[in-house]
Amino acid sequence: MPPLGSWSRWRRRVAARLVHAAWSRVQRAGTVTAETAAGRRFAAFGPGSLIAFPTGTVFGERWIEIGDGTMLGEQVSVCAGMMPGHDLGSEPVLRIGDRCVIGRGSHIVAHHSIDIGDDVYTGPYVYITDQNHCYADPEVPIGRQWPVNAAVSIGAGTWLGTGVIVLPGAVIGRNVVVAAGSVVRGEIGDRCVVAGVPARVIKDYNADTGWASPAAGSMRADVAFRPALAQDPALAELLLAPAPCENSAVVPAPGEDLAAAVRGEDLAARLLGEDLAADSLLGDRDS
Fold it and tell me: I need a labelling partner for 184 at 20 to 30 A (CA). Which of 4, 66, 168, 169 fits?
């Protein structure tokens, strides 16, 4: 007869194997696919797509479209509306494209319009929403003020790192890397790397010169910062001090430094002007 300690260890090993085998069966049985009753509740649920078990909070499926070959990890929440049963009209408000991977524990909460392109990957615990609390009346509790919606778009081929937050109104271009922990607001163009709170461009791609870090003063900053620069000419002038890169929209005259080429007041006018797109990094990138 084996010693008591050996018998105890054998029982624990057997129990562990049984528990893991049972859990694997539960996970397979609980996975949501296009063939399951849960998958058929969605406005669209493409072949080869799945939502892993255990799921997070899922409701408003009739206003959610999921493309082909897309995987949502464990504990991912995908919601449409304020609560189950909230009528959002006739059209879907949340669209996730083909071949996407949404990381474990992420939350995608739609009320108005969230459009996620094909081949978008996220790390775990990403939060994407198109609705935010309003703070119009400082005397009323914020939770009791009517929220504000703004459409969100994430371009094809983009990667969102762990813990990224995408705020209402964000427009992220194609093939963008958003660094872990970043908070995205405003507009981000194609083929770049962004990081920070709020996220700004730290590296972008130019067909002629390849990958480069935007130089201060080149006006290749995230558009989320432009209003602040426009209201602070001194800050704008300070940021203009270093030499421009080859794609700079501001080119000093021979013998003239960049700060002298465009003073803060002039930059503020340009930042608010109608020709912003032509002078911005986004204009350079798309040309």
Answer: 66
**In one letter, which amino acid is 221?**
A
118, 156 contact by CB (below 8 A): yes
Q: What is the pLDDT of residue 141?
A: 92
The total of structural domains in the chain comes to: 2
Residue 133 · residue 111 · CB < 8 Å: no
Query: Do residues 162 and 92 both lie within one domain?
Result: yes
Between 232 and 84, whose confidence is greater? Answer: 84
Residues 6+ apart with CB under 8 A from 256: none
Residues annotated as catalytic (active site), given as ranges: 133
214 is a domain residue: no
In a domain, 212, yes or no: no
Query: Per-residue pLDDT averaged across 23-52, rounded?
Result: 93
Share of the chain above pLDDT 90, in %: 55
Measured in degrees and rounded to the nearest 5, phi and psi for residue 23 equal -65, -40
User: In this structure, are 229 and 96 located in the same domain?
Assistant: no
Query: For residue 201, which phi and psi values (nearest 5 degrees)?
Result: -70, 125
Output the domain CATH number for residue 112: 2.160.10.10
- Specify burial of residue 37 (Cβ count, 10 A radius: 0-12, 13-18, 19+): exposed
CA nearest to 190, candidates 151, 227, 158? 158
From 162-166, 244-248, 272-276, the region with the lowest mean pLDDT: 244-248
Residue 204 to residue 9: CA distance in whole angstroms: 56
Please tell me the predicted confidence (pLDDT) of residue 82: 87
- Indicate if 163 and 240 belong to the same structural domain: no
